[in-house]
Amino acid sequence: MREEKSERSSQARVTIMDVAEAAGVSKSSVSRFLDERLPPSQSEVAKRVRKVAQDLGYVRDVSAASLRRGSTGTIGVIVPRLTDTVMAMLYEALARAAARTGRFAIVATSDDDLAADRRAADALLNRGVDGLILSTARQGEDFTRDLARRGVAFALALRTDGVSPSAVGDDRLGGYLATRHLIDLGHSRIGLIAGPAYASNARGRADGYAAAMAEAGLPVDPGWVVPSGFGIETGAEAATTLMALPQRPTAIFAVNDNTAIGALSALAGMGLRVPEDVSLVGYNDIPIVSHLATPLTTVRVPFDQIAAEALELVFQPEGTQGDATRLLAPTLIPRRSTRKI
């Protein structure tokens, strides 16, 4: 039997018809007995079919079975990169949400490049995914409009284009909470590591910063707002720029934890202590920031809620999505990187 199995595998994939012929039953019986979604039959015929299938090396083609039902049970996820902890956390949350609905999440990365976004989407759609979730949206781009025109079921997560169905954190509220925390500690010169202008989450957090400063009647020196990427290196560069100002800030709000970690490193390199010399707040609450030598005050994003809402938006009945935006509230997590002055 082993020789027969080896010979078969070297020639062609074992099919359900091969199992039916070898077991002396119908194709429909084999399909029923091997369907893992059904309680396993304990009849002698069912046991024989399962034994024959195992000996022949039969592997059920789940994607083909799903296609016959008009669904593959998969959801495509496009993120800029998985080396970014935030995007890895989002993908894991989406994978958990998908599993709860009997689906499987497939991820593709695009390095935040629009052309790569399109290629990734086409590759995932060609694999038969039932829909897409994108965390790469840029306001003003027509990529999502193209997907909508093609009838692709999709939703945006973490970032929004202002038009498409989106599940995002309330970034304006989060930016407000971070800045208000520093104001309540007595800081009035608060620098902002602002992130990239193309990302709605960075813009929302910057808007929250501006709102909190205005509410407190605090002027914002234009030099206190430094654009950056989302990486550690750009955070270090931005912090260096802020600390070179004639009237440098006593506190910094960085719009994500990676840039805050970069700022922390740069401040240490300048001989400045956090929080004794400069208070520092990040955003997202990635796992490492609570374990730093100086645990980072940050704003926690509800990734699991965002993932569940994004998945629900993808599979809403056609024509009911509209321009729905689901806003999920963040939470301020005070730690030792901030202090009263």
Automatic annotation (TrEMBL):
Residues in HTH lacI-type domain copies? 14-69
Q: Which UniProt keywords apply?
A: DNA-binding, Transcription, Transcription regulation
Any single Pfam family the record assigns to this protein: LacI
Indicate whether Hydrolase appears among the record's keywords. no
Q: Is Transcription regulation one of the keywords? A: yes
CDD domains per the UniProt record, alphabetical: HTH_LacI, PBP1_LacI-like
Q: Please give one Gene Ontology molecular function term for this protein.
A: transcription cis-regulatory region binding
Q: Which PANTHER family match?
A: HTH-TYPE TRANSCRIPTIONAL REGULATOR GALS, LACI-RELATED TRANSCRIPTIONAL REPRESSOR
Protein name per its UniProtKB record: Substrate-binding domain-containing protein
Species the sequence originates in: Paracoccus shanxieyensis
